[in-house]
Fold this sequence. Notes:
This protein is mainly α. Helices cover 73% and strands 4% of the residues. It contains three helices and two strands. It has helices spanning 2-34, 42-94, 109-166, and strands at 99-102, 105-108. It has a two-stranded antiparallel ribbon. α2 (42-94) runs antiparallel to α3. It is rod-shaped. The relative contact order is 0.12. Residues 174-178 and 190-194 have low confidence and may be disordered.
Amino acid sequence: MKGNASRDYSRDLQEKLEIYFIGLVFTLLAAAVQTARFGSGPAADVFELVSWLCLLTSGLAGMWRLEWIPVAHVAHGIQQDAEELIEQLTQQENRGVRMTTFDGREVTIDAALAALRDRVSFRELEKADLTASARRRYRVHKWAFVMGLALMLIARGYAPARAAIASPTNASPVGVAAAPHVTIASAPAASHVAPH
């Protein structure tokens, strides 16, 4: 029971983290749209729009993955129930019981065990497919978020960085004092007076 409690706690914590992550993605997307300022440059505008697309893709992929998590849990639960029933029927067979009720009808234990093993095999394949699909969606969810955040930072920092690089500097070299600017006024021209 202790192991099951720890597993349930870790699963609940993981689901809460996934919901928080999706909320964070959509919050950043809404903030980016509301605070966007276009016109600083074509490249910055393109980075801004692509970052919105990446964040939207990340949020939708996360919601899509979250939608299929209960389906995976249901498939895993059905598989566990079938495995427990296989164990119970095997114990009955070892005690000499030959018939049992399975799916509402009387069948032999061998037939019930064969049907249950087929059900377990099918659920294992279904669970493996759901797990692989969930991992693909999580990769899209995570890396689209990283890409969107990086592109948004580039778009917002493009104009300030460009202005800082292009602005002229009037600072003198280190250790060299700027020479004072001295204006020399020209002397007035001497007046020539003819002698009388």
